[in-house]
Design a protein that fits this description.
237 residues, alpha/beta, four-stranded parallel beta sheet, two-stranded antiparallel sheet, 52% helix, 11% strand, disordered C terminus, binds iron/sulfur cluster
């Protein structure tokens, strides 16, 4: 009898917990959509807690109710960008890292892959050289990496306080999750994949703190040069 009551109570508690989790996931989706569509951030800690704690189930749940699973990563990136924005800006670029994905490189890139990633020589054939130059001029350390194993090494081998990354939604969200204590900021690839990907250069430069130097026309081009000391030049490629 006592055992029977225990199982009944246990079953009720599991059921209740399931209902609560579903409510939490739905609330996170609603608040996340509000953030994406209206730029309104409400209960950021709840959003991050749900995404961090229920990442896998949350994606499955989103798929079950007919949403693209990537919505979870989208919300995660947006929340972290908002939450960390001011802290990131307050940190000296000398203490910051910029991490770029090597899939952005030009197909004819001659740069070598070493332990720390791709050693871009800034040949100006792709956006990596441009971003690297601008970021390094400001004091950032820049890494161009093929995957998360390189990221782990970079984190272990460098002293830094903040990080700005570029990647697809899923990689970006997972990396920002892992690097949560470094006030991460992220820019999502505008075309993802394994090769010939694209990123909004202006968005990255703005995150770097170069936006003051971008004129309207210059901002449109997908390749910009020096912004740390001088106004951006008119060169493009
Ligand atoms: S700018 Fe750097 S990454 Fe791009 S093609 Fe040249 S060496 Fe390769």
């Amino acid at each position: 009898m006592i055992i029977g009551n225990f199982y009944e109570l246990f079953g009720q508690m599991v059921f209740l917990a399931g209902i609560l989790i579903i409510c939490l996931l739905l609330l996170t989706l609603i608040l996340g959509k509000l953030l994406i569509k209206q730029d309104r951030l409400i209960f950021p800690k709840v959003l991050l807690l749900t995404i961090d704690l229920f990442y896998g189930p949350f994606k499955k749940f989103s798929g079950i109710i007919g949403l693209d699973e990537i919505i979870v990563d989208h919300i995660g990136v947006e929340v972290r960008n908002k939450v960390n924005e001011n802290e990131f800006k307050s940190i000296d670029p000398q203490d910051n890292l910029l991490i770029l994905p090597h899939c952005l490189r030009n197909p004819h890139c001659k740069a070598k892959l070493e332990e720390s990633g791709l050693v871009c020589v800034k040949c100006n054939k792709c956006v990596i050289g441009t971003l690297k130059k601008n970021a390094e001029d400001m004091g950032y350390k820049v890494f161009v990496i093929p995957g998360s194993t390189f990221l782990k090494k970079i984190v272990e081998q460098n002293n830094f306080k903040a990080v700005l990354g570029v990647a697809c939604y899923q990689d970006l969200n997972l990396s920002m999750m892992k690097l949560a204590k470094f006030s991460p900021q992220g820019v999502v690839l505008s075309r993802d994949g394994c090769f010939k990907t694209k990123v909004d250069t202006k968005a990255v430069l703005e995150k770097l703190g170069c936006s003051d130097h971008i004129s309207a026309d210059e901002a449109k081009i997908n390749a910009l040069h020096s912004c740390s000391k001088d106004k951006l030049s008119e060169k493009s490629f």
